[in-house]
Amino acid sequence: MTPGSEKTLVPYAQLNAAEHVTVTKVASRSSYMTFGKSRLFVSGTFLSVLLVFVVLSVVYTGSSSNGLLCVDSKTHTTVQNNSVLHPEMRIRFRGTKRRLPQCIIIGVRKCGTRALLEFLNLHPQIQVAAQEVHFFDEEDNYDLGLEWYRKKMPFSFPNQITIEKSPSYFITDGVPEKIYHMNSSVKIIAIFRDPTTRAISDYAQILDHKRSKNKTYHTFEELAIDEESGLVNTKYKAIRISVYHRFLQRWFEVFDSKQIHIVDGDRLITDPLSEISNVENFLGLDHRVTENNIHFNESKGFYCMRNETQEKCLKSSKGRKHPSVSPDVLDKLQRFFQPHNQQLFEMIGQTFNWPAPRAMLQ
Asked: Is it the case that residue 77 has pLDDT exceeding 80?
């Protein structure tokens, strides 16, 4: 929506009522004609249709309110409203269609991919797939073809960017080539957190799942540290995934570095607007997500999305409490990841403020 363009606000209830009026009039046409009132019916139908157009063309100069769908009168782009906070409430407009994604968030798992997607969904020129599609990493889905994949995408206007995210894309062999084959100019976003924190978060999610199933489980230390050697257990998947440069190298071998944007997942937690602004620049979009759209929820302890009337936070499973891990194990993990982190920083041309091993701080 260009600056100065008008916003048309259409209450959902009025849209539904208008559709009901039209259907009722059409269904009752035969009875009107039976009583010789076809002209009255035609006039009534015309007035009903006219009334609908009048409602649709009402212009409000103020902000949207609860239950209103805000539409840019020039581009018909949906802007910040309930349908943005709740994508399932969106209405399909004429001129929209499902499009293959022009941007894909490839991971990393437990680094904030869902939070990033929800924040980006606040932008009026972005439409996001509500669910992880897992098209490129699951062969059964991939065999269904691009048309199946396209139908999993949201409806969008030509000036909007469709984004999909499936975190397992990052670590799955062959996915970069498959995505490139779909669209060689697609833009890729990866988000990283401190690898030690990411590994513990990964463990915490699986731990919650096992507890809910009354299954036995090992402590994080038992899984992360090899009992015989006392070294970091590189066979533990949560550790392997956190060695980011080994997986990212595959993506740089397929895509130009200008097509890949790296998000600081730790900074997204403490200063989301700065990271969102960087993504807007990467996608070539105006800066439309502002401090008015993001609110720090004191009770939850993290930032949530909001508009003029309501707030939406990630579900309770996000930001779950991490188990306590001994300082010695934390230090051992940080020592292990430090050279791998350095290789990552050299690869992407940027550094992150991740904790250093104790020996390096002395």
From this structure: no
